[in-house]
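User: I'm writing a short report section on ligand binding and want a predicted complex to refer to. Could you take this sequence and uracil and write out the structure as tokens? A short remark afterwards would be nice.
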Amino acid sequence: MDKQKKLEELNNYWQENCQCELRKTATRAVLGQGNASSEIVFIGEAPGKKEDEEGVPFVGSAGKFLSELLDSIKLKREDIYITNIVKYRPPGNRDPEPKEKEDCNEWLINELKIISPKLIVFLGRHAMSRFFPELKISEAHGKLIIKKFPEFEEKLHFLPLYHPAAALYNGGMRETLIKDFKKISKVLSPTS
Ligand code: URA
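Assistant: Sure. The structure tokens for the complex follow:
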């Protein structure tokens, strides 16, 4: 079965079975989107208002900035796969709670297993802390981490970045994110 089909089955299963309490208040699950055969997966935090309305991740202002960042390294949304640690919008866009992250965790882990990307990019501290709760985004951003987790057969490559929504209106953080983004190309094609 191809990866796209496997993802569809996974999403069908978890939309029926996810225990996340946010299902009660969200309009719908916002599923991962993009190229299931991509070498790179971006992981955000949780859907916002626009994502909840449209059912697509990163379509609001943070998403527009993300598309610009991708453009700066000659990638398109169709080239990558993008998902969130929590698939349902937290009311009022509050931070997702630990239990909500836990309830959506197996869904995310299985997405990653199916896609098996060369690089996983965390957009913001919430995504990073699912895998590296001990790290601070202010110190870890832009630094490649290679680590083996028991859920996965091989070592994985991770790149933590600031969240585009946090960087949108903060000049310093914005510059840092633009600079850190360039590291994605280096990791994907080390000789370029
Ligand atoms: N912020 C996120 O973390 N994810 C989205 O899908 C949209 C905004």
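A remark for your report: The chain has nine helices and six strands. The mean pLDDT is 96.
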